[in-house]
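#struct-pred

JT: dropping the chains for the assembly here, can someone run the whole complex?
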Amino acid sequence: MRETQGRVLDVAALARVEGEGAMRVRIDGDTVVGVELDIYEPPRFFEALLRGRGYEEPPDITARICGICPVAYQMSSSLAIEQICGVTVDGQLAALRRLLYCGEWIESHALHIYLLHAPDFLGYDGGIAMARDHRDVVERGLRLKQVGNRLMELVGGRAVHPVNVRVGGFYRLPDLDALRAMIPDLQWACGAALDTVSWVAGFDIPDHHGEWDLVSLAGDGEYPIMGRRIVTSAAPDVVPVEEFGAHAVEEHVAHSNALHASWDSRTYLVGPLARYSLNQHLLPPVAREAASAAGLGRECRNPFASIVVRAVELLAACTEALRLVREYEPPGAPSVPVVPRAGVGHGASEAPRGLLYHRYELDERGIVLDATIVPPTSQNQRAIERDLWQVAQAGVSLDDAALTARCEQAIRNYDPCISCATHELDLRIVRA
Amino acid sequence: MSASTPRVAVVKFASCDGCQLTLLDCEDELLGIAGAVDIVHFLEAGGPLLSGPYDLAIVEGSITTAHDAARIRELREQAKVLVSIGACATAGGIQALRNVADVQELAAAVYAHPEYLSTLATSTPISSHVEVDVELRGCPVDKDQLLHVISAYLLGRPPRLDSSPVCIECKRRGTTCVLVAHGTPCLGPVTHGGCGALCPAFDRGCFGCFGPADTVNSTALVGRLRRTMPADAITRLFHTFATDAPGFRAVHAPEEVEP
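RK: done, full complex below.
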């Protein structure tokens, strides 16, 4: 046997992921005997901090769980509290929320595709090194990201932790002229996103078949971003969001400050692969055609191809944003009045990296008695570890550097947001 | 990169990543910055991840574990200039709400096995542990202020960060006062500027995410807010994004209102 016996491979601090985590893979001879994704990002106790706060506060407080996907937190929390208060936000206000959320998808997907994930496929240690050889491509990615941020600034006030979101809608309607002035940029973005799909489809994408159930929101006539129904690949039944907790179970394991989840006791996956595979028919036609041209089937279970799916979703989000801006007619008021009342509410939305569920219990004054937040990365952690095991086993003959790089790439396939998995992640390969 | 190109590290402690993301959000300037300095350690962006010494360390996040307390001391020894960015790094952040709560209770509320966690009872700013050269406020920091601090560093002069409160920025911007005109609760008079008075421009009151201004008369503001707000809501308003900062820490609105 070669040196693979007795080898220890460690990545103590994973790069190009959101937040802080590490990986440990233990290999005995030619057999992987252990895989841990260790989340060491310190816990921040948001669910407990929410107790005793007012009903109008969770959108601002929970946004601080994640600087990359604050809108996801603002939307899931708003939807949950609106359910308690018997309020429905629809029409143009719902369209504005979707537009803001498209901004977050564009920003987050462009960041992940161009700066965090593509360097793995092209052999660079990061986006800045990649820019030395591929300046035009990186500039395209940055400009796409900027379009997403600009949408968030126009509708939300700022790109990180938008200030304009409230339970019931918005504080102020966005400036109509400034929104319409975005049209040329969005037209450019649609073209650039289409080019992005072609670009990533040309990468050398490792083969892998993920064995997990897929879970996402169900689209209601459009590709899902916010919704009240959940679909899975395991069963034909549609699950109301209120029953999320009856299916998804989180447990605390020793090596991680993030909680691990299962769906009906089975490993499951949320995020672009799940959304695409379960809702592909709802993509805008241009995105569906681009997916087909990129070689994606009706279902995609190869996590390494997630970069292609993410690019298809980037195109979908740009296309949607352009449509929403063109069709936007300012509503009479920026928000629907909300009067607090006692009760329990559930909210779910599709953060760029997967389904984000919130549940709140309020008293009659609107004070939060209890809060539960289930972020996408903790739902995915079990699937990531399972994949990591298979990828490490399949690549066991690679040298340490190559195998470590492959394993890190496998983790980035999921665009993990460790800050989100607030409850903490560590990558090490140990060969015994 | 030449030998004189500054070596820059971007380092994170307990936080949401939003402030370092603000650096990546400088889409027009990012590649220019990467050309002017040598970014030798920036975990989220990738790159070489080299150890110190560094000419400039940009630090996000608060200190909440014994391990991080040791890590920031090591970083300080390796960094000629240390800039802390954001509400977590400059005031302990929203997670400093634990400083007034029982951490064991918090952990038990979130985790089934709190014994697996190792965490301090407090969330404290970087300046509570080491000397900090420049502090940049905000949850998140303002992009233009961040670019200004980096440019000033490259030009070899101290950054000029206006310490006017949000209230003054609002007047400069010409926004109608949301507190006086609409009765909307607003922390603008006591909050450190830097955001350009963003919230009032969106018809909402400032919620203090840049922390307390240099001089704060919170008693006067609490009296004004008490006309329209219940005491517990006022106390919560002060105790969110910079709860443990001097100037906000001691504010507790009285139940009884002076007539």
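JT: nice. Chain A touches chain B through 68 residues (CB under 8 Å). The domain at 46-385 of chain A is CATH 1.10.645.10 (Cytochrome-c3 Hydrogenase; chain B).
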